[in-house]
C-alpha cells in the first residue's frame, strides 16, 4: 500500500507513506521509486530507524532503535555504521567513537556500566587494538593493546601519587609430551613490575608495538577489567540487525 507523491512515470517520488508486504512501514521521502532523503522506517518487530536514506540504503545521519533496547545514533554509509557514532548497548555499556563496516574501528571510548571503567584508545574491526588508556575508579593503565589484550610495556597510575611501571608478557601453556603436536594454549598475559616511581610523563606512542603473533588470553581479572565483557551487548545487536536488515531489504511495489 502506498499513499503519496509520484513522478510523471508513476514512480514514488517526493513524500509518501508505504506499508510493505511484511508489515513494516515507511514514511518519508522518495526519489524515482526508492527511499531517498529523510524518512522513518518502522519494523514490525519493534525496531525503528529514523534518518537519511540514499537509494533504499541508510546513508548519512540516522538513529536506529533496536528491539532489545539498544540504540545507535551517528553516521551510516550504504546501510553500514560508518564514520562517527554512539552505541548504547542493551546491558547499559556505551561506545562513542569511530566506526567502519558496522564495527568499532579507529579511535573510541567504551564505558562499562557495571564497573564505571572505560577504555579510551584504538580499535580494529571491533577489537581493542593500539595505544590506549584503561581508566578505573582510583587508578588507570596506560599501554598498548593487541587483539583485545594488554601486551608490552605500560604503567599503572594510582591516585595516591605513584606509578607502577612494567610489562605485560604473553605466556603459553606447556603441553605434555603426548600432546606435542597440538599448538600451545595461550594463558593470561602476566604483569611483570619493573619499578615504582612518582608521576612521570610517558606515552605508549613511544613504544614499538608487540609482535602480532604474541597475542593471547584474557587480561588478569585482578585489574578489574574483562575485555570480553562487551561481547553480550554486541552479540544481541548483530542478531537483531540481521533480522531487521532482512526485513528492510524486501522491495516495495
From TrEMBL:
<dbReference type="GO" id="GO:0051321">
    <property type="term" value="P:meiotic cell cycle"/>
</dbReference>
<keyword id="KW-0282">Flagellum</keyword>
<keyword id="KW-0963">Cytoplasm</keyword>
<keyword id="KW-0677">Repeat</keyword>
<dbReference type="Pfam" id="PF02493">
    <property type="entry name" value="MORN"/>
</dbReference>
<protein>
    <recommendedName>
        <fullName>Radial spoke head 1 homolog</fullName>
    </recommendedName>
</protein>
<keyword id="KW-0966">Cell projection</keyword>
<dbReference type="GO" id="GO:0005634">
    <property type="term" value="C:nucleus"/>
</dbReference>
<feature type="region of interest" description="Disordered">
    <location>
        <begin position="170"/>
        <end position="253"/>
    </location>
</feature>
<comment type="function">
    <text>Functions as part of axonemal radial spoke complexes that play an important part in the motility of sperm and cilia.</text>
</comment>
<feature type="compositionally biased region" description="Basic and acidic residues">
    <location>
        <begin position="1"/>
        <end position="12"/>
    </location>
</feature>
<feature type="region of interest" description="Disordered">
    <location>
        <begin position="1"/>
        <end position="20"/>
    </location>
</feature>
<keyword id="KW-0969">Cilium</keyword>
<dbReference type="GO" id="GO:0007286">
    <property type="term" value="P:spermatid development"/>
</dbReference>
<keyword id="KW-0469">Meiosis</keyword>
<feature type="compositionally biased region" description="Polar residues">
    <location>
        <begin position="244"/>
        <end position="253"/>
    </location>
</feature>
<dbReference type="InterPro" id="IPR003409">
    <property type="entry name" value="MORN"/>
</dbReference>
<keyword id="KW-0206">Cytoskeleton</keyword>
<dbReference type="GO" id="GO:0031514">
    <property type="term" value="C:motile cilium"/>
</dbReference>
<dbReference type="GO" id="GO:0035082">
    <property type="term" value="P:axoneme assembly"/>
</dbReference>
Amino acid at each position: 500500500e502506498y499513499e503519496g507523491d509520484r513522478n510523471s512515470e508513476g514512480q514514488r517520488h517526493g513524500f509518501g507513506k508505504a506499508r510493505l508486504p511484511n508489515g513494516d512501514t515507511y514514511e518519508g521521502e522518495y526519489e524515482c521509486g526508492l527511499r531517498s532523503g529523510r524518512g522513518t522506517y518502522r519494523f514490525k518487530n519493534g525496531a525503528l530507524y529514523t534518518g537519511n536514506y540514499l537509494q533504499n540504503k541508510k546513508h548519512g545521519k540516522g538513529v536506529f532503535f533496536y528491539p532489545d533496547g539498544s540504540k545507535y545514533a551517528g553516521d551510516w554509509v550504504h546501510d553500514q555504521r560508518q564514520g562517527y557514532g554512539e552505541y548504547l548497548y542493551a546491558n547499559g555499556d556505551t561506545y562513542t567513537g569511530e566506526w567502519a563496516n558496522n564495527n568499532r574501528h579507529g579511535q573510541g571510548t567504551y564505558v562499562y556500566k557495571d564497573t564505571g571503567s572505560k577504555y579510551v584508545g584504538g580499535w580494529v574491526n571491533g577489537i581493542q587494538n593500539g595505544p590506549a588508556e584503561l581508566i578505573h575508579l582510583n587508578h588507570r593503565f596506560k599501554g598498548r593493546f593487541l587483539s583485545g589484550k594488554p601486551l608490552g610495556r605500560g604503567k599503572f597510575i594510582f591516585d595516591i601519587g605513584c606509578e607502577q611501571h612494567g610489562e605485560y608478557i604473553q605466556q603459553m601453556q606447556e603441553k605434555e609430551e603426548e600432546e606435542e603436536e597440538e599448538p600451545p594454549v595461550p594463558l593470561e598475559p602476566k604483569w611483570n613490575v619493573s619499578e615504582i616511581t612518582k608521576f612521570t610523563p610517558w606515552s605508549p606512542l613511544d613504544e614499538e608495538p608487540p609482535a602480532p603473533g604474541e597475542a593471547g588470553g584474557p587480561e588478569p581479572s585482578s585489574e578489574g577489567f574483562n575485555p570480553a565483557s562487551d561481547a553480550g551487548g554486541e552479540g544481541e545487536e548483530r542478531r537483531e540487525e540481521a533480522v531487521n536488515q532482512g526485513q528492510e531489504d524486501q522491495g516495495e511495489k
